[in-house]
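Example 5.3 — Heterodisulfide reductase subunit B
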Amino acid sequence: MLGYYPGCTVRAQKDDGFERESMAILNFFGVYAHELSQWECCGAVYPLTEDEYVPLLSSVRALQKTKEENRQGLLTLCSACYHVLKRVNYRMKNDKEAKKRVGSYLQFEYEGDTKVYHLIEALRDFIGLDKLREKTVSPLSEEKIACYYGCLFLRPKEEMGLLDPENPQLMEEIVKALGAEPVKFPYSTDCCGSYHAYQKEGISQNISERIVKSAKKVGATQIVTACPLCKHNLEDCQKKWDERDKLPINYITVPIVQALGGLEELEKEEFQNQIAN
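Solution (predicted structure tokens):
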């Protein structure tokens, strides 16, 4: 069983279905994640100054709590949380001074040895594309899906180590397993403007519009992402567009649930599996 770190944004936006859909997919395939008994906000942004240690503490607590609760690793759904947790983990493993300073604050030493998983990583490592393909009952043959990664999943390459930051293919492989056609577009790994949406709206607006228009140009019927902030920015940049010009922005879970038969079917089978066991 995995530990589960919800993070503030996903938990605050439960009505958008990302958390429910993610857990239904994992549970359907017999992969279970149990929320940590205690967790705090990771800070959302990784601290970039080398002598800044206090912002690391909440992530280290979550990583250590995962070990204490005997979980296989720590799962998160939010790419911002994933980015911070993964980089903090890397730093604890490789920066002796940071390890010493954080240990003096927390009164324990953490070795940087908890595996951090994002949802799409868990789909690959614990379920596999063949299983997704096998369980697909409603192939998405009419869909042309643009997979948008953004920047937080992928960079810096050495610290994140999930996918090739120049040519990631995991979401495309997931989409193909569902029977849909992944479409290539130039800005799949560009930043959407991130938190500039709340500080310098015009910057994020222009960047996000470029991403959406690029996906529309190659014939995408939807964009999928796994980042709440990316989803917000890509939707928000279209708010003044005519309805017929807008492109749906979905979490990667939406086409997966659709291809597997719908959320009610997934949760019904999960319930039956629990009774059988």
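Remark. The mean pLDDT is 93.
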